[in-house]
Amino acid sequence: xxxxxxxxxxxxxxxxxxxxxxxxxxxxxxxxxxxxxxxxxxxxxxxxxxxxxxxxxxxxxxxxxxxxxxxxxxxxxxxxxxxxxxxxxxxxxxxxxxxxxxxxxxxxxxxxxxxxxxxxxxxxxxxxxxxxxxxxxxxxxxxxxxxxxxxxxxxxxxxxxxxxxxxxxxxxxxxxxxxxxxxxxxxxxxxxxxxxxxxxxxxxxxxxxxxxxxxxxxxxxxxxxxxxxxxxxxxxxxxxxxxxxxxxxxxxxxxxxxxxxxxxxxxxxxxxxxxxxxxxxxxxxxxxxxxxxxxxxxxxxxxxxxxxxxxxxxxxxxxxxx
Length: 322
Prior knowledge:
With about 325 residues, the protein is mainly α. The chain is built from 14 helices and 2 strands, in the order H-H-H-H-H-H-E-H-H-H-E-H-H-H-H-H.
C-alpha cells in the first residue's frame, strides 16, 4: 500500500469519527462547516471534470440553481419526495446542459466564448428565479417546507446534523470515485488525444458537460436539503459560478483532491475572516479573501495541492534509485 493511500485512509477514518469527538460546543459548528465543505467539494469536483478538458464553464451556478430550486419547489407545492424530485431536477439540469453544450460543441464555440455563453446562462437562470417570485419567493428566497416529523428519510430532513454529515461525506467520496473513473476511462484519453490533433470531439464534450451538470445538480439538491433554504444569490448566478471556479483553481484543477483542498481552504478562510472581523471594517474580509486568491493563482498556477504534489513527485524522482 502506498503512502498516499495510507494517508487517505487515515483522513477518511478521522472524518468518520469526527462527529463523536469530545469537542464541546465546537463540535456542532465544526460538523456544520464540514458538511458544507463536503458538498461544495463535490460540486467543485463536478466542475473540474469540464475544466480539465478545456471546457471552462462560468455558468455552473445555473446547474446548481436548477437542481436546488426544482427539488425545493416540487416538495413545497406538490409534496414530492426529494428522492424523486431530485432525480427530476437532475434530468432537467442535464436537458439544460444539452441545450447549452450541443450548439457550442457543434459550432466550435470554445475558449472564452464558451465561458461567456455559460456565464450568460447562469445569470438568466438567476433572473428567472427572481422573476417567478410567486413560486420561488423572488430575491428573498424560499424556505423548504418542514417535514411532519423532525427526522424523515422520505423528506430527507434530519434534526441531527450528524446524519446529514455522513450522507454528505458519502456523496463526496462518490464524487471522487467518479472523478477517478473518468480520469482513467478510454473516453478521457480519446478526448485528450483527439483534442491534441484538432479532431472534432462533439460527443465527448457533450458527454462530459452532461455528467458535470448532473453532478452539480446533485450538489444543489444536497445543499438545499441541508440548509432548508434557497436564495437566488447563493444558489445561482455569476457569484456562485465564480466561487466554484476559484475554489477549484486554488486547490488544483488537474488533481483528484484539488477541489476538496481548495474548497476547504476557501470556506475555512471565509469563516475565519467572518468571525474575526464580523461587522467591523465592512468589506475587509472579502478584500483579504480576494487578495489571497489572486496571489495563489499568480504564483501557484497548479493550485496549492497540485503544486505541493508536483514538488513531492520531483523530490521523490530525484531520490529514487535508477
